[in-house]
Design a protein that fits this description.
The protein is mainly alpha-helical and about 450 residues long. It is about 70% helix and about 0% strand. The protein has two domains: about 15-200, no CATH class; about 235-435, no CATH class. It contains 13 helices and no strands. The longest helix has about 30 residues, at about 330-360. The protein is globular and about 70 Å long. The two termini are about 40 Å apart.
Length: about 450
């Protein structure tokens, strides 16, 4: 929830005015970066150095614009700290553009690399800046760093890929200069909005409600232990079908009954009997912007880990795959298993290994590190038939998902992101090579 007007300084600009000023600041950053690029070319500098100088100026001026906006909205920032923040964003922009000169691939692959690179360095810039500008005292701020970091990561990444993709695409119908002018305009609009939104997210009042189930009696504890076993054991036993079942029809029957229908009935019974509520499992209706942000972040991180984790671990020790699902020979059932089936996988795996498992472990400890590690191990091991490397990759992915869940309780967004990761991995018409960098 965005902070109320009482939490802002008297005389601060309205939302539209603040965003307008922010966009103007990033426009100025863009114009000065173009001047820097021309200056670098006059000295015949290499393309890498030219790009680094140009983007460094862009980040320096844009960072200064962000400092000015932060001062205008709510916070006092010293000149020294403002200069450091500007330098941080200059380094973030330099870091974002540098990997582009060390990888080769199609224009689509390079656009995806640009998205990941700038999102990563945008997150680093947001991390450092957030800790530098957050209020150290007073009750006007929740001092909430993660939304600030996430905003910058997504805005930097989306701005980079939007500017690049739109500029290339518009050249098919427009001359080069107007095409890139429009693309640059879209990019600064994204950054200008993101600069403003990151500030209000940092200064937002923390009104999230944390709802945890109470299992004080031995009866309740025993019940939820039994439920835990009923929910997770089918996932571990289901992998035997990957090893011993060769008929795709039998495999689908086992899969859909054991790890889709059965967990659904167990959870439905718990909710119907009022043993737990949907909100306690993370099944709440989120706001649109946080939902979209969590979904995009989960999807991008999950796809990166899934497509690059196995090449990274290729030389690591461990046992190989013990089996896999048989090929589905029916076109209809392939389609059903690819979209509705994978969506159900995302829904029930997140419902159990994030929603329910978080609720269960929290009964015994509230330490986030312990919760993340235990849930990651449990999630990784349900993929035991896929080999040791698959266990590791899915465990790391599960750890990331749980960290997002602990922070946001936005289980529907994580479910949808989980589906996106699995869909990209399973859909043959999506070129997976564009996501692989190792």
């Amino acid at each position: 929830m965005i902070m109320s007007e009482q939490n802002l300084k008297t005389g601060t600009p309205g939302t539209a005015t603040a965003i307008f000023h922010s966009v103007l600041g990033w426009i100025a950053a863009g114009l000065l970066s173009i001047a820097g690029a021309f200056s670098a070319q006059l000295f015949n500098l290499p393309n890498l150095a030219t790009a680094q100088i140009s983007l460094g100026i862009f980040g320096l001026v844009g960072g200064y614009s962000h400092v000015r906006l932060t001062r205008t909205i709510a916070l006092k920032i010293s000149r020294r700290k403002g200069l450091l923040i500007s330098i941080v964003w200059a380094l973030a922009c330099v870091g974002g553009v540098t990997p582009m000169f060390f990888f080769l691939g199609t224009s689509l692959k390079m656009s995806v690399l640009s998205l990941y690179s700038f999102a990563f360095f945008g997150a680093l810039g947001g991390l450092v800046t957030g800790f530098m500008i957050r209020p150290r005292h007073g009750n006007t701020s929740s001092q909430d760093i993660p939304p600030y970091i996430l905003t910058w990561a997504l805005c930097f990444g989306i701005a980079a890929i939007a500017g690049d993709t739109l500029g290339e695409g518009l050249q098919k119908i427009l001359p080069e200069i107007p095409a890139w002018f429009i693309a640059s305009g879209v990019m600064v609009l994204i950054l200008g909005w993101g600069s403003w939104y990151s500030i209000v997210s940092l200064l937002a009042e923390d009104k999230k409600q944390r709802t945890d189930i109470r299992m004080s009696s031995k009866e309740n504890s025993s019940l939820f232990i039994i439920v835990l076993l009923l929910l997770v054991l089918p996932f571990y036993l289901n992998d035997f079908a990957n090893i011993f079942v060769s008929d795709w029809r039998v495999w689908l029957f086992i899969d859909y009954t054991a790890v889709k229908l059965f967990p659904f009935l167990v959870i439905l019974w718990l909710i119907w009997q009022r043993k737990i509520s949907a909100i306690e499992l993370g099944l709440s209706v989120p706001a649109a912007v946080p939902f979209l942000a969590v979904f995009l972040a989960i999807s991008l991180i999950g796809v990166f880990l899934d497509q690059n984790g196995y090449p990274i671990l290729s030389n690591a020790p461990g046992y190989s795959s013990l089996g896999g699902m048989p090929k589905i020979e029916s076109f209809l059932w392939r389609g059903i298993d690819l979209i509705p089936g994978l969506l159900l996988v995302g829904v029930f795996e997140e419902l159990i290994f994030r929603g329910y498992l978080y609720m269960f472990i929290s009964k015994y400890t509230r330490q986030p590190v312990v919760i993340v590690c235990l849930s990651a191990a449990a999630f990784g091991l349900i993929h035991w038939s896929g080999g040791f490397h698959q266990v590791i990759v899915t465990a790391v992915t599960g750890a990331v998902f749980m960290m997002f869940y602990i922070r946001t309780r936005s289980l529907p967004a994580i479910m949808l992101g989980h589906f996106a990761v699995n869909f990209i991995a399973a859909a043959s018409f999506i070129p997976k090579s564009i996501f692989r960098f190792f």
